Amino acid sequence: MSGEHQLRREIVTIGRALHERGFIAACDGNLSARLDRDRILVTPSGMSKGAMRASDLVIVNMEGRKTRGRREVSSEIGMHLLIYRMRPDVRGIVHAHPRTATGFAAAGLPLNQPLVCEVVIGLGQIPLAPYGTPGTPELAKTLEPLVPQYDAILMANHGVVTYGADLQSAYMKMETVEHFAQIALVTHVLGQQKLIDSADLEKLVAARSKYLGVNSAAPMPVCSPNGNGAASNTSEGRRRKQRSSADLRDSEPVSQLEN
What we know:
By secondary structure, the chain is of the alpha+beta class. The protein has one domain: Class II aldolase/adducin N-terminal domain (L-fuculose-1-phosphate Aldolase, 3-Layer(aba) Sandwich). The protein has 10 helices and 8 strands. Strands 4-3-2-1-5-8-7-6 form an 8-stranded mixed sheet, sandwiched between helices.
């Protein structure tokens, strides 16, 4: 039980941090942690994540049925279960609405441009999933194609979900997404983006294995013409990857963000 108690404390601590940083408001957001192969510890529905106690958390099985706890299960448990089923390596998930990143999601813009070395190494890119109604199977369905390769996903008109080997890793990825969104917004306001060129991108991707806790499978740079952040192995995708940074700088800033 000591492991469960520790996870309860971690969820409460991270929930408070999300609220204090303005990543969530009111009863928004949800967090979960994998207890074992068959049980998930998850935040309750209808409660501020900044005011939770360890006893408020709920345990569910892999079908989403509550097995322990006095409060109601988060309505977005289906999204968590999908990620746990598809990613056995994941043991912690954070869903929040950080202002800048959610602004990109509401504008229909993925964070898929190679602007910052640390983001390329740690996350690769942050794709945009199509809109799905929260609390319904529709939401999980929109995430399904992206979950295997990405550890952070923008959800159109909704927010962000991040996940990792533990809760702390998932939370740090949420911080990274919001920080990167702020940087991307500044480059847009300044009117230009100096992208990392393809040769240097390859070096950064190759360096991922040297960094503790980094296991991103996300390909770089983005090659999909539809803006959803999914990579393409088509000849067109390869040609895009070979475009020089000078060519990209000649593009209009808005079109670069929308690629």
